[in-house]
Amino acid sequence: MTLGAVVPAAGAGTRLGPGGPKALRLLAGEPLLVHAVRRLRACPDVGPVVVAVPAGTEPAVAALLEGLQVTVVAGGAERQDSVAAGLAALPAEVDLVLVHDAARALVPPAVVAAVVEALRSGADAVVPAVPLADTVKRVGKDGTVLATVPRDDLRAVQTPQGFRRAVLERAHAAPAPVTDDASMVEALGVAVRTVPGDPEAFKVTTAFDLAVAEALLQQEEAVRRAGA
Question: With contact defined as beta carbons under 8 Å apart, do 195 and 118 qualify?
């Protein structure tokens, strides 16, 4: 089966502060999007990659990603619109699809490989997930704690999320207001399998997250140089 990937990268990223689309913010001198696509490309199973970006930026983004073998299309106002646009642009022979957030720029290739392996072993939908470290409270509109939620069965879900293309297309044919594609698939009654995620696959959302990502890259470079 042929495996492709869609990278929705049309979000404004307002919580990261001023400076243009989030996916194009610089991390160690390169856009977050470049790091994210490079990590996907580190997995040899990944074939065609489609990136959905703000309308009008396609030529500039294509130039940034030159050499990484991607197709760049215009995304939409919502994340679901961008995923749908990327999905439509994948070649017909693609049977399995990864959907990966451009803001998860440091996802370890091993996480990508684990999602791919689960798909190839027969799963209809796969998400990387990590246990919650913090105590979770359910809070009312007035800020009062209503309950403490047992966290043993709770997981924080990351990307790339993997799907059989037919399942993902069916989910996008009846979209719902959710924050990830797995939730849309769950609404169809399709089972979603989890694989171990990784703390480094965190989503860069704020300036603090960007600083953490910079520090991790510096650490990676130091380790690489020490082993050279």
Answer: yes
pLDDT tens-place string over residues 103-126: 999 999 999 999 999 999 999 999
Residues 34-45 pLDDT 10s: 999 999 999 999
Q: What is the 3-state secondary structure (H, E, C) of the chain?
A: CEEEEEEECCCCCHHHCCCCCHHHCEECCEEHHHHHHHHHHCCCCCCCEEEEECCCCHHHHHHHCCCCCEEEEECCCCHHHHHHHHHHHCCCCEEEEEECCCCCCCCCHHHHHHHHHHHHCCCCEEEEEEECCCCEEEECCCCCEEEEECCCCCEEECCCEEEEHHHHHHHHHCCCCCCCHHHHHHCCCCCCEEEECCHHHCCCCCHHHHHHHHHHHHHHHHHHHHHC
* Fold classification of 2-227 (topology level): Spore Coat Polysaccharide Biosynthesis Protein SpsA; Chain A (3.90.550)
Which pairing describes strands 70-74 and 49-53: parallel, antiparallel, or unpaired? parallel
Q: Are 198 and 130 in contact (CB under 8 A)?
A: yes
Could you tell me the residue ranges of all domains in the chain? 2-227
